[in-house]
Specification:
The structure holds two protein chains of two kinds. By secondary structure, chain A is α/β, with parallel strands linked by helices. Chain A contains seven helices and five strands. Chain A folds into two domains: about 5-130, D-Maltodextrin-Binding Protein, domain 2 (3-Layer(aba) Sandwich); about 135-190, Winged helix-like DNA-binding domain superfamily/Winged helix DNA-binding domain (Arc Repressor Mutant, subunit A). Chain B has helices at about 20-25, 30, 45-50, 65-70, 95-105, 115-130, 145-155, 175-180, 195-200, 225-230, 235-250, 255-265, 275-280, 310-325, 330-340, 345-350, 380-385, and strands spanning about 5-10, 35-40, 60, 80-90, 90-95, 135-140, 165-170, 185-190, 205-210, 220-225, 285, 290-295, 300. Chain B is globular. Classes of the chains: A alpha/beta, B alpha/beta.
């Protein structure tokens, strides 16, 4: 396996970096370094002298890495982006997933392809997790709004808990709106009459 | 607008994205039947890649990246064309208070004169070398950037070799100010609003507007893939017309407060309206002590024919790539670079002839030193300099 390959992950998100690092280690890569702080990134990269650099696309420091393509005394080896002109499907998939890969030196294309595919699947897995978390959060928020509106209705209209909820639901159905939206209007109206 | 043509356009939060942002936010694109999704990006690499692979239909792009993409330099080769210029000028060189003081001490004339400051820099650099001090570090935004070439052009004129005597490092624009404050860099060249932000924080002096170094320098382009332009001529025309309307709106001083407020929110440029207003007016605070400097050519958004893409400007940028060893010199590459700027597409869309700016330089560039630039004779341009890589 590619245990000897030196890989750098540049990602400010610790969870995503951990997910990726795990994946790479499962695949047999033992030499993986995570760089969180991008201050002095180039010096860091030169010191580690990696074979592969993986960077998330939300990271402004991607432009700093592009400087390594330039001829310069400071660079020992030329750095070339993995994707060559014929491989636009790979670049599309990686940009969609939000990750970019750079290689240093002459790494075989199929070896790097395996790593990039792994990155893409791990990055996609991370965004699925993130979406789920966001959905759960907004469901919780909706729950809170509905509870508050129900409380207002119970007080103002002298209703039971069930009656207040039924009123919200019926209004939502009639207005073709979500219950949470109707609840939001109830709260807003109550604020105005305060 | 539900049945408009859907387009995704990428931009970097900088003052020269103004025409694009105003075109969308004032509804000028919607009036042309275009339904635009603006995507705020964090790096030029992202903008370039997403434009190249078709995730963006168009982009606010720094002119040399469009040229590098067409020439296949540093990345995959995708021919790019620009039917509209988003900005001419707008960059400035900001130095730390310490470097400002050293330059003032070493100067033999007015610090407003770029030749005086370039020579002063050469003396500061020589003195540091003699002491065995670390070389000065200058920040710029991208290897293929106007900022890189503007810094190099200026310092080389004073005898400073940008590859031997100082360090030039790429920094994302939002990191420039912090890097100057922390001493990571001694100076930087960047577009608005970052120079003003450094001055307002009291950690930087604006040494030069780049308009003092080059009277006229194409900065950002509205860039599209050449193939997309050929396949969507009508959409392209509508996009250009909406941008022209926006540029005219921005250049009417009566609208400036509204424009500055439109651009201020975090999902647009994300700085105080007052800073944007100063930029558009070309009236910038250049020193923490409150000194202001005016230049009505600091940033041109459409005024004085700035929106009409100029192949001579593309030729000048290509000449810098050759001078600094980023590109070989060839007739084919020169032609391909010039072909990025498409005044014909601009004229076809707007249907009006733009009045030339009477103050525009005869050679289209107006550099503070050196012979007039001839876009068909890059060899002569290169021969004029002793410090160069090719």
């Amino acid at each position: 396996m590619d245990a000897s390959l030196k890989i750098i992950i540049v990602d400010e998100n610790p969870i995503r970096a951990a997910i990726l690092q795990d994946g790479l280690q499962e695949a047999g890569h033992r030499n993986v370094t995570w760089i969180k702080d991008t201050t002095g990134l180039l010096a860091h990269v030169y010191a580690i002298d990696p074979d592969v650099i993986l960077i998330d696309l939300e990271n402004p420091s991607r432009d700093v890495l592009e400087q390594m393509f330039q001829m310069s005394r400071a660079v020992k080896r030329p750095i070339a982006m993995f994707v060559d002109q014929s491989d636009s499907a790979s670049i599309q998939a990686s940009v969609d997933a939000g990750v970019s890969a750079y290689i240093v030196g002459n790494l075989q294309k199929d070896r790097i392809k395996t790593i990039l595919d792994l990155c893409i699947s791990r990055f996609n897995a991370f965004s699925r997790l993130q979406d789920e978390l966001d959905r759960t959060k907004s469901a919780l928020e909706e729950r809170k709004v509905i509870d508050r509106a129900r409380g207002i209705l119970m007080k103002l209209r002298n209703l039971t808990e069930e009656e207040a909820y039924a009123l919200l639901r019926k209004t939502a159905m009639n207005e073709k709106k979500k219950i949470a939206e109707v609840a939001q209007s109830v709260i807003m109206t109550a604020e105005m009459f305060k | 607008m539900t049945d408009g043509v859907k387009l995704r356009i990428g931009f970097i939060p900088l003052a020269d994205a103004t025409a694009l942002l105003v075109a969308v936010d004032k509804g000028f694109t919607a009036a042309e039947g275009l339904d635009i999704e603006l995507v705020r990006e964090v790096s030029w690499s992202n903008v370039r890649d997403k434009l190249n692979i078709g995730l963006f239909d168009a982009a606010h792009l720094i002119a040399p990246i469009a040229i590098a993409s067409s020439l296949g330099l540093g990345h995959i080769k995708v021919p790019i064309v620009a039917p509209f210029g988003l900005g001419v000028n707008g960059n400035a060189i900001t130095v730390s208070p310490a470097l400002q003081a050293q330059l003032a001490d070493a100067a033999d004339g007015n610090l407003r004169d770029p030749m005086v400051t370039a020579r002063a820099l050469a003396r500061v650099v020589a003195a540091r070398k003699a002491k065995g001090a670390e070389p000065l570090t200058f920040g710029m935004t991208f290897p293929f950037s106007t900022h890189n070439y503007h810094l190099r052009f200026w310092m080389a004129a004073g005898g400073v070799d940008p590859d031997e005597d100082v360090r030039l490092v790429v920094l994302p624009p939002p990191y420039m100010v912090d890097s100057l404050a922390s001493g990571h860099v001694d100076a930087f060249c960047v577009g608005a609003p970052w120079n003003s932000v450094a001055v307002d924080l009291g950690i930087g002096h604006i040494l030069h507007f780049v308009s003092e170094i080059l009277a006229r320098a194409t900065e950002k382009l509205l860039a599209v893939r050449q193939r997309w332009a050929e396949e969507n001529p009508d959409v392209l025309s509508r996009l250009v017309r909406a941008h022209q309307r926006a540029a005219d709106f921005v250049e009417d001083v009566n609208n400036r407060d509204e424009v500055a407020s439109l651009l201020a929110p975090a999902n647009r440029i994300g700085v105080a309206p007052e800073v944007i207003r100063r930029t558009l007016d070309g009236r910038l605070k250049v020193s923490p002590d409150g000194t202001f400097r005016n230049d009505d050519h600091y940033l041109l958004v459409g005024r004085g024919g700035a929106a009409r893409p100029d192949p001579a400007q593309a030729a000048w940028l290509y000449a810098q790539m050759v001078r600094w060893g980023q590109a070989p010199l060839s007739r084919e590459m020169l032609a391909a670079a010039k072909a990025v700027c498409r005044p014909d597409l601009y004229d076809a869309a707007s249907g009006v002839a733009t009045a030339p700016d009477p103050s525009a330089p005869a050679d289209h560039i107006g550099a503070f030193t050196g012979p007039a630039f001839d876009p068909d004779d890059i060899e002569a341009h290169l021969a004029a300099w002793t410090i160069r890589r090719s």
